[in-house]
Specification:
Elements lengths: L2 H10 L9 H6 L10 H33 L5 H7 L10 E5 L2 E6 L2 E8 L3 E4 L5 H7 L33 H10 L12 E8 L2 E7 L9 E2 L4 H14 L26 H5 L18 H8 L3 H6 L15 H13 L4 H13 L8 E2 L13 E3 L1 H12 L3 E2 L2 E2 L3 H7 L16 E2 L20 E5 L3 E6 L4 E7 L8 H10 L2
Antiparallel strand pairs: 1-2, 2-3, 3-4, 5-6, 5-15, 7-9, 8-9, 10-11, 12-13, 13-14, 14-15
Length: 487
């Protein structure tokens, strides 16, 4: 087995299942003379497939190294030891030169560029100089420092030693357990846990070198932010969720995708063909989108329909990136677009750590690439718990919050709303719900590798867990049940 073949499954680990059949992989973009033997054709196909596999593997490693070091502030040694420690990386050369992270293996070089305030972007069709020139940091609304006040207004936290009606000892024990393997040799790798009750942090723990001021990747928790930003644009009169989604690729004559509404996109029922799978072995659409394409929104917008719009629930990061591109296209000035989530959401909540990263086309990767401290991620749960109100200001309309937390019609178990997960249960049968041991009123942000912000509104409780769990059960549900029992 060549290095290119072995690098892919080893490096990506928990990623990838095939997005297309073996025959599709072997015929895509391959040009060989008719006189070649079958063996020669097969070798040509495998070479091109191996090149794509290596591009994905290097892309995922390069992007993660760039963001982890230059956005989160971790050391490259820690990232290599924790996330990029596969033996296959012995054949890869990594370098960090100022704002540019480069990886090379077997003649293939992948780069990611860091830009202040907007993080790291994989370079695909442009070059580092072009990306640097496009962004003017002086035009970015740099976040003000959090006020010197208690969380959530500021960042001061004083953990209580006792609370009436709360078994703090049981909660702290549950927090400690969340950092321990649930299965033999699982390497659960929990990095942060926070428990908030009635708007106050009552328990908090980090695994060194992670700490309260270090931004962490939320993966698909970013989708809930994208949904909230859409609500602001709806309130501004810029978007209508009931209208056909304004996607240029769908405007041709008799294109059935023209019937897809923004509501369909928000509720993951667009009907577009897409594979969202993270199993080791081969390539799904979500992986191809994130690591081989410079325009993540266009990647999915060009997909055909697999189901009539509104009839089938299928969770798709590609769908969210179409929404991000729709938001982008409303702005005539790119820097105004870049500033939008910061001025309208993050700065209102004093989320001064928050960074959403754009793809090469300049569109925020609204499905996956937001970094924030666990305390700042928790503020999003608190915003929904407070029905969109923050410090006397209505950041999200109560109607948008209600819409977001109302089960979509396509999911059979009432487990999804507008870019956020629910626990409502099947219509007419709430006992048939995703997490039967927790209340039907629960809702939560959820991301790859075990990122969660869980909200139990009836108990005014929020539980945050972040880490890198690549196999076995996640600790969030046992943790949440234990905390709930301690109230």
């Amino acid at each position: 087995m060549s290095k290119k073949t072995s690098l892919f499954p080893l490096l990506l680990g928990a990623f990838l299942v095939s997005a297309c059949s073996e025959s599709e992989l072997q015929t895509a973009d391959i040009h060989t003379p008719e006189v070649q033997s079958e063996v020669a054709v097969e070798n040509t196909v495998m070479t091109e497939q191996q090149a794509l596999e290596t591009e994905i593997a290097l892309g995922s490693a390069t992007k993660r190294l760039c963001s982890s070091v230059l956005v989160s502030g971790r050391t490259s040694e820690h990232v290599m030891a924790e996330e990029l420690n596969n033996p296959a990386l012995a054949a890869v050369t990594f370098s960090i030169d100022g704002d540019l992270v480069t990886s090379s293996q077997d003649g293939l070089t992948i780069q990611a560029l860091y830009r202040p305030y907007i993080g790291c972007t994989l370079i695909k069709d442009k070059d580092a100089g072009t990306l640097r020139a496009e962004f003017d940091a002086n035009r970015f609304a740099a976040p003000p420092a959090s006020p010197d006040e208690h969380w959530p207004v500021g960042n001061q936290v004083e953990l209580p030693t006792e609370l009436e009606g709360v078994d703090l000892a049981a909660i702290n024990l549950a927090v400690d357990i969340a950092f321990k393997d649930l299965e033999p040799d699982q390497n659960i790798n929990t990095r942060a846990v926070i428990v908030i009750h009635k708007g106050r942090i009552i328990a908090e723990k980090y695994a060194a070198p992670f700490h309260a001021d270090m931004p962490q990747l939320g993966w698909s928790m970013t989708k809930t932010v994208t949904g909230a930003l859409t609500g602001m644009l709806v309130a501004d009169g810029e978007l209508n969720i009931s209208a056909p989604a304004p996607v240029p690729e769908w405007q041709g004559d008799n294109d059935p995708r023209a019937e897809i509404t923004l509501n369909n996109l928000l509720q993951m029922s667009s009907g577009l063909q897409f594979s969202e799978v993270y199993t080791a072995g081969s390539m799904s659409d979500v992986i191809l989108m994130l690591y081989t394409i410079g325009d993540t929104g266009a990647f999915t917008a060009n997909k055909p329909l697999a189901h009539p719009p509104g009839t089938n629930f299928y969770y798709s990061s590609g769908t969210t990136n179409i929404i991000s591109r729709i938001q982008h296209d409303l702005f005539s000035d790119w820097h105004d677009y870049l500033n939008f989530p910061h001025q309208r959401l993050f700065q209102k909540l004093n989320m001064d750590s928050a960074v959403i990263e754009p793809d090469e086309s300049g569109v925020y990767v609204g499905s996956s690439y937001m970094y924030a401290t666990p305390r700042d991620w928790a503020k999003l749960g608190l915003l929904f718990l407070q029905k969109g109100e923050w410090a006397g200001e209505q950041i999200l309309s109560p109607e948008w919050v209600e819409y977001s937390l109302t089960p979509a019609t396509a999911p059979e178990r009432g487990n999804y709303g507008n870019q956020i997960w629910l626990n409502a249960g099947a219509p007419g049968n709430p006992e048939n719900r995703a997490v039967a041991a927790l209340p039907a009123s629960m809702y939560y942000l959820s991301g790859f590798e075990g990122q969660n912000v869980v909200v139990l509104p009836d108990q005014e409780l929020i539980v945050v867990r972040m880490g890198v769990t690549t196999r076995g059960q996640r600790p969030i549900w046992n943790l949440t049940k234990a905390v709930l029992n301690a109230l």
